[in-house]
Amino acid sequence: MIIAEQKPLDEIKSMIADYQKVLILGCGTCVTICFAGGEKEVGILASALRMATRLDGQDKEFIEATVQRQCEYEFNEEVADLVKEADVVLSLACGIGVQTMNEQFPEKLTLPGLNTKFLGQPTEQGVWDERCLACGDCVLYKTGGICPIARCSKSLLNGPCGGSQNGKCEINPEVDCAWQLIYDRLKALGKLDLMMEVKSPKDWSASHAGGPGKIVREDLRL
Amino acid sequence: MKSDSNLEKVLSAGHFAVTAELGPPKNADPEVVRKKARMLKGCADAFNVTDGQTAVVRMASWAACLIQKEEGLDPIVQMTCRDRNRIALQMDVLGAAALGINNILCLSGDHMSFGNHPESKGVYDIDSIQLVKMVKDMRDEKKFQCGEEMKVEPRLFIGAAANPFADPFDYRPYRLAKKVAAGADFIQTQIVFNVPKFREYMKRVCDLGLHEKVYILAGVAPIKSSGAARYMASQVPGMDVPQEFVDRMVAAIKGIPSPKSIADPEKKKEVRRRRREAWQAEGIKICAEIIQQVREIPGVAGVHIMAIEWEEAVHEIVSQAGLLPRPTV
Question: Rounded to a whole number, what is the distance in Å from the CA of B149 to chain A's nearest CA?
């Protein structure tokens, strides 16, 4: 899922400085699961902003709402009246939700209340780890199901660099070396031969390097 | 011959080769490079110029290579995948060859987080092994990575790095095999302090027959002080410094009082100098000893001396190791 975290309160305060009535709009999908922008976080942020802006001597009104999925028009229709009523929308969705709102309600500005961090997985309670870079050309079948594109700091395709030590990456002893994980996994699977072949340069044009991604499915179009 | 490289000539004539590192300055002063080049001339067969080592901005490797070439040295341009995509890499390969640079060392590159611009975006379009293959195809097939052909190929002697002390240890010889399969002509290893571990690595490398396909130069470096020894032992990723050398560096200044215990500024200075000289002498001695030890290891074709920001030490090291004068081929 998409993992995000809330922007610092001061940054949010400066973004909404020019507006009086603010709709704080959460999203019920990924950012609810990662405790960044669901109904609960909308409530907490609204309270924090009420207190903070009052302490600053400002008279602002905060409306709270959460939609099921902010990246789809049909769910956002439910809050059309609230959007109309507000001076600005502060979205607690990922960057996709923020842009959907701006497209759908062009007369109103929607601001980002979160920083969208990565595509990842909750690995422990309160811990999220990056798992996919959406490179558009999945290599997991060659790497024992562990992604070197997202999980190796250098996105290497031909095994661990010289900075792999005790299973950790050279950039930070907290970061696992993806290629150590891949090596251990392929060894356990009896498929170490996959680490012996020289892999060719990757076709990055399948990713963002080829321009903004777009998929058109003619079979699904109306 | 694949190139006009002096290093290639020395190695193919069967000599035990010596390469040394020349660190480019963190400014635009060509005199720094010239001075180091003059100091290093005759001490080794070819001279690496690092390419933004530890991700710190320094003079471009190819530019410092050109300056040392003007001083009569055989430069090895280091090229990392960190800062360039395959387009930029191939342009620099053509440019370096056009300037008369005959050797290239292909590297992935230290991550940006180590350097002085940790907020920068890394490139890593291709990796070091793919870079080796790309340069080899440019040279031997006259083809760019995309398959297009060129008229005049870059005649470069192609090098790659290997770290025998990184993990997983069992995989390291196979990763070297991949670099050889990709087209590496020579290998420069990470600094060897743990000779027994390196010997074990080389045994596995020879068992795979790699020493017959590629020239392997063992990396060595002089330790500057006991503090540096401790730092390398504990803080530098991929570095394996046995306690024995830390102890020897500590013992080197035995009998010299600590500068902290002396109040008189002149005497303090004198004590500092004595300590520095004692450390440096021991560091150089250890380095020369390691060279003699790795020289005995089957499959080792030479040494690569990395006297980082201490190029003055190189002459004494090669001299003590009995590697002077360098062969003329």
Answer: 18
